[in-house]
Amino acid sequence: MMAQAMATSIPAADHVNSNDLLVVEHLTMRFGGLVAIDDVSFNARRGEITALIGPNGAGKTTVFNCITGFYKPSVGRLAFNFGAEFASRVEKATLSGNRSVLLNSKRRERGYLLERMPDYEITAKAKIARTFQNIRLFTGMTVLENLIVAQHNELMRASGWTIGALLGSRQFKTAEAAAVERAKFWLAKINLTNRADDPAGDLPYGDQRRLEIARAMCTGPRLLCLDEPAAGLNPKESQELNTLLRSI
C-alpha cells in the first residue's frame, strides 16, 4: 500500500475521515541545500491500495523513509490511525428498580504522529511494515526462518527476553508454535511451501520479492509500504504479485 500524491490540502488530524489511515501534511525533506520532497500532502485509506507515482529521483523512496522513520522530515506532519473510532457496548444493571441499562460508550484507538517516533516504535507500535526497492532478505536463512524472524518482537516478549526460551516455558512454546503456523500460512499464500527449508538466497528473483512481502505481513501490519515491488519482474511474476497484493 503506497501513498497517492495529491495537491489538495489535508484536514487536521483530529478532523480526518474515519477511512483515512495515514494523513501526510506538507511533508518537506531537505538534505542541506537539496530539497528532496517539497510540500507534499496526501492520504491513504483503510482497505485500499494507493500508489505514489513519479519518475526516478522524484523522492518516492524518501517519502517512504519519512513514513517508516528512516528519516525525520524537515517540515510536516504524518498522522497515522487518527480516524479510527469505534463503539464499545457495556451492559450495566442500575439500582433504580429492576431495570437494566445498556450503556454505549465510544473510545478512540490510539493514533500516532510518526515524525515524533523512533523508527523501531513505528514498526512495533504503529504497525507499519515496508519492503525495499532492493530486496533485503536474510539470504543465508531458510525461507521459513525469514518469516519466523519477522515475529521476533512477539517471541521475545513471550520468552521474557530469552529466559523463557532457555527454560522452555509454556508461554514461549505457545508463541513459537503460533509463529510457525503464521509463517506456514504465508508460505502457502506465496506458493513456497515446498521451498520452506531452502536458503532464501536460492529462490528465483520473483519468489524473493513475494517472500519479502510475506515477511512484512508476518509482523501484522496495519499499513504495508511497498517500494517498487514489481521492479525487475517478468510478466508472469508481475501477475503473481498482483494476485498476492489483491489478496492482502
Overview of the molecule:
It is built from eight helices and eight strands, in the order ββαββββαβαααααβα. It is α+β, with helices and mostly antiparallel strands. Strand 4 and strand 5 form a beta hairpin. Helix 3 crosses helix 6 (170-189) and helix 3 runs parallel beside helix 7 (205-217).
Chain-wise SSE layout:
Blueprint: E1 20-31, E2 34-45, H1 60-67, E3 75-80, E4 85-93, E5 100-108, E6 112-113, H2 119-124, E7 128-131, H3 143-149, H4 152-158, H5 163-167, H6 170-189, H7 205-217, E8 223-226, H8 235-247
Parallel strand pairs: 7-8
Antiparallel strand pairs: 1-2, 1-3, 3-6, 4-5
Helix pairs in contact: 3-6, 3-7, 4-6, 6-7, 7-8
Summarize, please.
This protein is an alpha+beta fold and 248 residues long. It contains 8 helices and 8 strands.
Average of per-residue pLDDT values: 84
Using the alpha-carbon principal axes, give the shape: globular
Helix coverage percent: 25-40%
What structural class is derived from the secondary structure elements? Answer: alpha+beta
- Main β-sheet, spatial strand arrangement: 2-1-3-6
Distance between the termini: 10 Å
List the total number of helices.
Answer: 8
CA radius of gyration: 21 Å
What is the number of E strands? 8
Order of helices and strands: EEHEEEEHEHHHHHEH
Poorly predicted sequence stretches spanning 5 or more consecutive residues:
1-14, 86-105
Q: What portion of residues belong to β-strands?
A: 15-25%
Instruction: Summarize the biggest pleated sheet.
Output: 4 strands, antiparallel
